[in-house]
């Protein structure tokens, strides 16, 4: 995993407070979530971008056939994840562990820092950080209600999918949805990072990792739909939070079978245009399944209705 973009822990996760709401399984999630249609057909997947990391294996560009499906218009938000935990009492892995990684500029003064990542000092292990308390401070998920749920492990994402009768898209499905009908473009909106000198997604501006000028308006996560939709009506495919997919990164990476690295897509608010540019739609990242941090979330999909 690229340490500039995410922190990784062993057996770290978070949980939710059990409450019995009496709602039918999956109904609340479906009622609160918007889906957009991704048509069946082929598209050109991957990139030959000269600034791509060869180890990411983005290329070569190849034609891929995908069946039609529906994908959530945004990453799963805190309110949507809360509905799941209220109905099921699910305890996330970060909550079980009692801590998770928070980017150093977002750690509040009141938080208890347990340590820092050896490979990336800007990731600090914060006691009590999880989706309910994204920074480990006094603010709760209700203060970030329409932000993507973060500190989500692969197992947490699968549990949500099982509850809501969804599935995690594989990377072919994810990339076709992200492209929104465009062909071989770098971003969901085209090839230029800025349009009329305006940022089109939530990424890091400034000098990583010490100074974030937040020219896009956000220091950390942003509310979903803060930027324009792509051609299919989907939001936040570039930046904001990394999104889990169902695809293994490669059999050559990831270690034991139970923790094979999965492909995460989309980049996050910590990706920098001169350092980690994996917010391009053809970019991919390898992430062990137990990885949990303040910039890892997910998006769900379902079959055509």
Can you give keywords for this protein?
305 residues, paralog of FGE (formylglycine-generating enzyme), 5 helices, four-stranded mixed beta sheet
Mean pLDDT: 89
How many whole angstroms does the radius of gyration measure? 18 Å
Uncertain stretches: 8-31
CATH topology: paralog of FGE (formylglycine-generating enzyme)
Count up the domains: 1
Question: How would you characterize the overall build of this protein?
Answer:
The protein is α+β, with helices and mostly antiparallel strands and 305 residues long. The protein has one domain (27-302): paralog of FGE (formylglycine-generating enzyme), CATH 3.90.1580. Helices cover 14% and strands 19% of the residues. The chain has 5 helices and 16 strands. It has helices at residues 27-32, 78-88, 93-97, 154-164, 171-179, and strands spanning 35-38, 41-45, 62-66, 69-72, 99-103, 113-116, 123-127, 194-195, 198-199, 206-207, 211-212, 242-248, 262-265, 285-287, 296-298, 301-302. The strands form 6 sheets. The protein has a 4-stranded mixed beta sheet with strand order 14-13-12-15, with helices on one face. The two termini are 36 Å apart.
């Amino acid at each position: 995993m690229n340490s500039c973009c995410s922190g990784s822990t062993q057996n770290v996760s978070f949980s939710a407070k059990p409450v019995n709401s009496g709602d039918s399984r999956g109904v609340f999630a479906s009622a609160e979530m918007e889906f957009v249609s991704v048509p069946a057909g082929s598209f050109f997947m991957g990139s030959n971008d000269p600034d791509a990391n060869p180890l990411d294996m983005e290329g070569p560009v190849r034609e891929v056939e995908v069946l039609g499906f529906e994908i959530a218009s945004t990453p799963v938000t805190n309110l949507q994840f809360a509905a799941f935990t209220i109905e099921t009492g699910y305890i996330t892995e970060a909550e079980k562990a009692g801590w998770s990684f928070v980017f150093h500029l977002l750690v509040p003064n009141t938080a208890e820092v347990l340590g820092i990542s050896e490979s990336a000092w800007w990731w600090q292990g914060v006691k009590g950080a999880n989706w309910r308390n994204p920074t480990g401070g006094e603010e709760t998920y209700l203060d970030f209600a329409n932000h993507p749920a973060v500190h989500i492990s692969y197992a947490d994402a699968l549990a949500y999918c099982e509850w809501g009768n969804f599935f995690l898209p594989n990377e072919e499905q994810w990339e076709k949805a992200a492209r929104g009908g465009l062909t071989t473009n770098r971003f969901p909106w085209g090839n230029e990072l800025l349009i009329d000198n305006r940022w089109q997604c939530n990424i890091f501006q400034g000098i990583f990792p010490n100074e974030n000028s937040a020219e896009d308006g956000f220091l950390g996560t942003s509310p979903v739909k803060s930027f324009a939709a792509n051609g299919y009506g989907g939001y936040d495919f570039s930046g904001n939070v990394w999104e889990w997919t169902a695809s293994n990164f490669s059999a050559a990476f990831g270690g034991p079978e139970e923790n094979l690295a999965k492909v995460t897509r989309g980049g996050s608010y910590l990706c920098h245009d001169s350092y980690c540019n994996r917010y391009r739609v053809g970019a991919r990242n390898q992430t062990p399944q137990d990885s949990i941090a303040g910039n890892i979330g997910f998006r769900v999909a379902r079959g055509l209705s």
